[in-house]
Design goal:
The complex is a heterodimer. By secondary structure, chain A is mostly beta strands. Chain A contains one helix and eight strands, in the order E-H-E-E-E-E-E-E-E. Chain A has one helix at 19-22; strands spanning 10-17, 31-40, 42-44, 48-53, 56-65, 76-82, 92-93, 98-100. A six-stranded antiparallel β-barrel of chain A has the order 1-2-6-5-4-8. The longest helix of chain A is centred in the N-terminal third of the chain and has 4 residues, at 19-22. Chain A is globular. The model of chain A has no long low-confidence stretch (mean pLDDT 88). By secondary structure, chain B is of the alpha+beta class. Chain B has three domains: 2-189, no CATH class; 198-333, no CATH class; 347-464, no CATH class. Chain B is built from ten helices and 24 strands. In chain B, the strands form five sheets. Chain B has a twelve-stranded antiparallel beta sheet with strand order 1-2-3-4-5-6-7-8-9-10-11-12, with no helix packed on it. In chain B, strands 13-14-15-16 form a four-stranded antiparallel beta sheet, with no helix packed on it. Chain B has a three-stranded mixed beta sheet with strand order 21-23-22. In chain B, a hairpin with a 2-residue loop joins strand 9 and strand 10 (94-103). In chain B, helix 8 packs across helix 9 (424-436). Chain B is elongated and about 100 Å long. The model of chain B is unreliable at 229-257, 278-285, 290-300 and 316-338 (pLDDT under 50). The chains are: A mainly beta, B alpha+beta. Strand 3 of chain A pairs antiparallel with strand 24 (415-417) of chain B.
């Protein structure tokens, strides 16, 4: 039996901000902001990831990572992704959504 | 130097610097003059006894405040061109105009009593008249330090010591022949008062932006410290003032921030015209009066500040003071971070610094919405990837360079690893780069100090979460 240690990204989504809706005339157009806590792997610009929860999944691209520390929890980082076309995800604090590679 | 006019004789002596130090009229006892380093007469003496003392304003070199002479104090009233228009003294138990003065354009004086009746000479031997210059009744000339001005001839009595610097070939011309809006206190360089005033205001505005921001920040820091210390008191007051509009449970939102961070966002909001310590957009004048009566000046504005955050967080307000407020359903307390207080750059300066970045395909978003987002995130700038930077309309120099450094980190393949403390390492690296290159980047010292403080905080956070600093 061969054991493997995965370095694939797994991040919990803790908060969602529809920046594309709120700031649509800026660089945030068609973007969604996801505050994520990285459990495994790494976040990188251009990485294709899946936003999912049981029974739902959509591929997104990480187009931005906010270089702004979060004093509440430094391990939580806001990433900007292309806006999901099929999934509906409410803004605000969320549970159950994950980002995987 | 001797002057004979109308059968009167005046003899002047001057010191090595050209200052007139004694005046002797018709062979009488000399009057000795003593000067400030601004060539202002501070005291007159006759036979070593003080006969007059003058107090000058720092506003302008010939702005006279008052003269004490013979036990009488006279306050000078001057117009916008520093012409003394009247003197006010204490008479019959009341301060009142004692004498009035009017001039033709080149300064020939007319003297009046308080009721505008002509006087042939001053009852008070008053000598500071046209543009605050010292008038010599014997010669009929004004002594403006380096030269004497003849108000009857409308010209200087000596050639311009500055030569042809005035730009014309008239070495005797007075103030570009525009004496009503020009002053020349040194007799060397007519200064257009209107232009000078405009320049001063421009300078003041330029200076005051930075100074005002700093002062606002300092005041807001005190206010924020008080808010943090008296959070319960403020909370109670808010509940009283705003009634059912505010849920007390929303107050913990502020508890994660430090007074320093709160002060920074207060200052930013103040500069945006959203926050005013003396103006509460929510509570009415009654509440303000109540606050003032409770000797808590500014507390109403602070209430407004708290309320603004709370209401924006709740999504119950989206617009205030003509500005759209963009708020997600919740505002994290972490929003109170980042940004430097310092001199705001002009757009040209921002463009110059970011030229290379933009030429390489980078985008610098300084739109209204970008700024609103920065306010929301409590950041003085923000980098999203190697090609995208958000900046406010007038960022500080340090903020611009910090974001360019972050863009560079992304272009070198920055990734956020699990358990690495998020972006802390990149923030620390950027701060270290700014500090190391502070001279090359010409960062203002006060902003560098803030970077150093910021770096200390970041290292503290890294230590707290058990990561190497």
């Amino acid at each position: 039996m061969t054991g493997t240690i995965s370095d694939k990204l797994v991040a919990l989504v803790v908060e969602v901000t529809d920046v594309g809706e709120l700031f649509g005339t800026s660089v945030f157009k068609d973007r969604i902001g996801l505050d994520v806590r990285v459990v495994q792997g790494s976040l990188a610009i251009g990485k294709k990831v899946f936003l999912s929860r049981p029974g739902e999944q959509e591929e997104l691209e990480i187009v931005g990572i906010e270089m702004l520390r979060n004093p509440r929890d430094p391990n939580v980082v806001r990433i900007l992704c292309s806006k999901p076309k099929r999934l509906t995800i409410a803004s605000g604090t969320v549970e159950g959504w994950v980002i995987t590679e | 130097m001797k002057v004979v006019a109308n059968s009167n004789t005046a003899i002047y002596s001057v010191d090595a610097m050209g200052r007139r130090i004694t005046t002797t009229v018709n062979g009488g006892t000399p009057t000795n003059l003593y000067y400030s380093n601004q060539w202002q007469v501070l005291e007159e003496q006759v036979n070593s006894a003080m006969t007059a003392q003058y107090v000058w304003s720092p506003m302008y070199v010939d702005a006279l405040v008052e003269r004490d002479s013979g036990g009488q104090r006279l306050y000078a009233q001057q117009d916008a061109n520093w012409n003394v228009t009247a003197v006010v003294g204490f008479n019959v138990n009341v301060w009142q105009v004692m004498e009035r003065y009017a001039y033709d354009p080149y300064g020939k004086p007319s003297i009046y009593d308080p009721s505008w009746n002509n006087r042939t000479s001053s009852l008070f031997s008053w000598v500071y008249l046209h543009q605050g210059g010292r008038f010599d009744p014997t010669s009929g000339l004004y002594n403006f330090r380096n030269r004497d001005l003849s108000p009857t001839l409308g010209r200087w009595m000596e050639q311009d010591p500055a030569g042809y610097a005035a730009g014309d070939n008239n070495l005797y011309g007075d103030e570009g022949e525009a004496p009503t809006d020009t002053v020349d206190p040194y007799g060397t360089e007519g200064v257009n008062r209107v232009l000078q005033q405009l320049q001063r205001e421009d300078e003041l505005l330029a200076l005051s932006q930075a100074e005002r921001a700093q002062k606002q920040y300092e005041r807001n820091l005190i206010r924020a410290q008080r808010l943090h210390l008296q959070q319960d008191e403020v909370g109670s007051y808010v509940v009283n003032a705003l009634g059912s509009l505010l849920m007390p449970s929303t107050f913990p939102r502020l508890q994660g921030s430090t007074p320093d961070e709160t002060a920074r966002i207060m200052t930013r909001l103040q500069n945006q015209g959203i926050y005013d310590p003396l103006l509460n957009p929510f509570a009415g004048p009654e509440a303000r009066e109540r606050a003032l009566a409770q000797k808590l000046p500014g507390i109403v504005g602070d209430v407004a500040f708290l309320s603004l955050n709370v209401f924006a967080a709740e999504g119950t307000i989206t617009r205030l003071g003509g500005l759209e407020l963009f708020a997600p359903p919740s505002v994290p307390t972490g929003a109170f971070s980042g940004g430097y207080v310092g001199r705001a750059l002009t757009q040209a300066e921002v463009d110059a610094i970011t030229a290379e970045f933009r030429a390489a395909g980078g985008v610098v978003d300084q739109s209204v919405e970008a700024e609103a987002y920065l306010q929301l995130r409590g950041a003085g700038g923000l980098t999203l990837n190697d090609k995208t930077i958000l900046l406010p309309a007038n960022p500080t120099r340090t903020a611009v360079f910090e974001e360019l450094i972050h863009a560079g980190q992304f272009s070198r393949g920055a990734t956020i690893e699990a358990g690495s403390g998020g972006v802390l390492r990149f923030e620390a690296e950027a701060a270290e780069t700014l500090i190391r290159n502070r001279n090359t980047l010409q960062l203002p010292r006060d902003e560098v100090r803030q970077v150093i403080d910021n770096l200390r905080r970041i290292r503290g956070e890294l230590q707290t979460i058990g990561l190497p600093q």
